Amino acid sequence: MGATEDMLERIRSLALKHGLTLDQSEFDLALAKRRSNFPMLLADLFPQCAVGHLLEQGKAPQNYYPELFFGYVATTQGEFEPQELDFDSDDGWASMLIRFEFLGADREIRVANVDDSDWFTPSFVAALNQFACEHLNGRWVDFYDDCDWCTSLYVPVAAMAEFVALRSTLEDSRRKP
Fold first, then answer.
1. Residue 76: which residues within 8 A CB-CB, separation 6 or more?
2. Cα(34)–Cα(162) distance, rounded to whole angstroms?
3. Where in the sequence is the domain holding 76, given as residue range(s)?
4. For 65-118, how does the pLDDT look when each residue is reduced to its tens digit (9 = 90+)?
């Protein structure tokens, strides 16, 4: 078995172990075509718990983060249903505040390193995970390719370390000649 097949089998094994629904037809297609852009492929393999998007959004942060936020929320499949959302900044969009009501209480997530940029910041995923540590049963693990793509998977807490290890393996394999 080649490296691509090994990686696909590892992904399938993690899905089975942690009860994640893997799109079998996408898996079979990836295996047949030996697809190896794993960050993009993960969005196809796990359509219920993955969100994929470009890093360069081409518009102001106040215009794209709300849309991304809803995409990330959808990956929780109903576990996280914030209400009364407000996206704002108190520092000229150097950072962003996401204010909302969740489980009967007002909440706030601050995203650092927004820098009034049209580029997505990994701090967004870190901020969501900080909130998730206190309120949710899963965490987001973000995967990046060498170009302009991010896929984040929402996985059970028990699976997070293994998916982070998978991410490290994928990053290491891209660095090899």
1. 136, 138, 154
2. 23
3. 3-175
4. 999 999 999 999 999 999 999 999 999 999 999 999 999 999 999 999 999 999
| Residue type, position 177, single letter | P
Number of folded domains in the chain?
1
Structure tokens at 146: 């060498």
Distance CA 57, CA 69 (A): 13
Q: What is the pTM of this model?
A: 0.93
Q: Which distant-in-sequence residues (6+ apart) come within 8 Å of 133 by Cβ?
A: 139
Burial of 40 (0-12, 13-18, 19+ CB in 10 A): middle
Per the document, the length of the chain is: 177
Please report, as a single letter, which amino acid is at residue 113: N
- Residue 51 and residue 69 in contact, taking contact as beta carbons nearer than 8 Å: no
pLDDT tens-digit map of 144-164? 998 899 999 999 999 999 999
